[in-house]
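Escalation from tier 1.

The customer reports that the assembly of two entities below gives different structure tokens on two consecutive runs. Tier 1 could not reproduce it. I'm attaching the input and our single run for tier 2 to review.
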Amino acid sequence: SAVISQKPSRDICQRGTSLTIQCQVDSQVTMMFWYRQQPGQSLTLIATANQGSEATYESGFVIDKFPISRPNLTFSTLTVSNMSPEDSSIYLCSVGRTAETEQYFGPGTRLTVT
Amino acid sequence: KQEVTQIPAALSVPEGENLVLNCSFTDSAIYNLQWFRQDPGKGLTSLLLIQSSQREQTSGRLNASLDKSSGRSTLYIAASQPGDSATYLCAVRSGNTGKLIFGQGTTLQVKP
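Tier 1 run:
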């Protein structure tokens, strides 16, 4: 398994501002992902964080809104830019070693935009 | 496009009952399927991973089965306890990218 931490655990932000969420893993992992869980909803993949190259975004998510960095195999950041109330969600980082193995999730960052 | 459905959306049972949670997916060409548990306001805890070549996996009181051809998986919980109360999520992996597609979850309440 992997131990994953996220910072901050929660935040309340004003409309139009940006927030950067950090994800730290206790060991090197090949795969890192960012998911969003809107209130009362299930999880939706935002993007795959690729080490040393640009993230791969899912349909409906763009780099200008959700820039992602992954400087090494244990750390990634997700920025939620120019926030609106619709961005209020839980943002979760997840990791996996290969597609055949379990995927593990961090505790999440609960974001409220006012 | 892969879609994952979980039935029922909510379930309330008395302590001690055995129960089954259902998950169905539209595209049978999956890599594997993973069951998670989510407690209110928390992240996800992995329960079981079942590969496409497997029929079932067991961990303690939990047993997950997979029928890939019919696009179905079940999570069986034996002798339920109040501590089992949580939302249970099913997620499928359709390729080797690691991307998970989630169902909407089943919220379970086990009453003492």
